[in-house]
Amino acid sequence: MRSSRIWTRLLGVEKTVIEGVEVEESEADEIDPGDVLIVVHARPARGRRLRCGVCERRCGKYDNGEGRRRWRALDLGTLRAVIEAEAPRVLCPEHGVTVASVPWARHGAGHTLAFDDTVAWLATCCSKTTVTQLMRIGWRTVGSICERVWADVEASVDLFAGLRRIGIDEISYKKRHKYLTIVVDHDSGRLVWAAAGRDKDTLHTFFDALGAERAGKITHVSADGAEWIDAVVAARCPGAVRCMDPFHVVKWATDALDVVRRDVWNAERGGKGRTTRGSKSLKKARFALWKNPEDLTAGQQAQLAFIAAAHPLLHRAYLLKEGLRMALKQGKDATEVLWDWVIWARRCRIPAFVDLQRAIVRHWDAIIAAAEHNLSNGLIESTNTKIRLITRLAFGFKSPDALIALAMLSLGGHRPQLPGRQLA
């Protein structure tokens, strides 16, 4: 095998002519001063020369640009390696004057394709410290690489193919009300879209990308009770069945129960802020009130028995919460059972639950549809949990775009492959 072919295999490059290899000492201001640096002099193969860096169209040469430049390649053993080549500029009829493309790197990148793909794969599988120390790069550089790799994936695959049942939700990724709006596919379990923002304009961006024809094929949309989601879904895919996530309905009931518990707790203290034995027992009983009956410990069951005897109003609120939870599990019989619960809540004379039944009536069709079609936001809540972990990893990225790229690479079903490996 010729030495030039060995070097192309080592570097993971194609359509490249190796002109020579030399070894030099790293500069004092570099990451590893005094270390040996392998410099591979290369040029694009004949058919890959003088092409636009954006559209790959063959163009006329404009000038020599800034002369020779270097691209960081994968380390060779323990030694860093770079590819050095001329970087002329070409005149593209569509994109104007731009740096000519090279077959070993993406346009505007300072790393080879193999280096980018390796870093992106590591970012989806390893910790921040592992990636930065193994690849000897900064964490912000990892974010930029993830953006480049995801841009290539996004351009090569149809992310919205076969979308029928989707879930929409928002998740906070930063302090001061910084949110991402995310969309998942219930059928494949993939994260299909994410963008910074939490309002109608952000969600309209998704439906603009989806297109009117595909939006018309959406059959089910699950979400929480956010009005901005309801309004956009009603306008962009009016034929879809809107499903209200049962988890959020039960959360409303739990919040209403906690309002009642705090009122009883304050009354037990006499309204003067003094701690009493009764107020202490109520404060410790909140977990017993929140948990499902089948998950209660013996001590928590005793606490509930005490509440039933000493605080009948709070116990009635607890029964209302549990009654709603069971009503939402009745499937096709949920309509009749839930309506019985609404009548019970209207007459309970507990303000928090009277308000709750009004909210349930307001979202009646979506709640019943979720029970009948057995569709919830469980998948999207699971996705949110994974994105929260990714958000912790992405701390230090300079923009939400890098976070979104990392989330899409990890959860979008298109995780990058390591260079030189066959698809499993």
UniProtKB/TrEMBL annotation:
Organism per entry: Streptomyces gibsoniae
Residue ranges annotated for the Transposase IS204/IS1001/IS1096/IS1165 zinc-finger domain, each copy included: 51-95
InterPro entries: Transpos_ISL3, Transposase_DDE, Transposase_HTH, Transposase_Znf
PANTHER family: TRANSPOSASE FOR INSERTION SEQUENCE ELEMENT IS1557 (PTHR33498)
Domain Transposase IS204/IS1001/IS1096/IS1165 DDE: 166-405
Transmembrane segments: none
Domain Transposase IS204/IS1001/IS1096/IS1165 helix-turn-helix stretches: 101-150
Source organism, top-level taxon: Bacteria
Protein's UniProt name: ISL3 family transposase
NCBIfam families registered for this protein in UniProt: transpos_ISL3
Pfam families: DDE_Tnp_ISL3, HTH_Tnp_ISL3, Zn_ribbon_ISL3
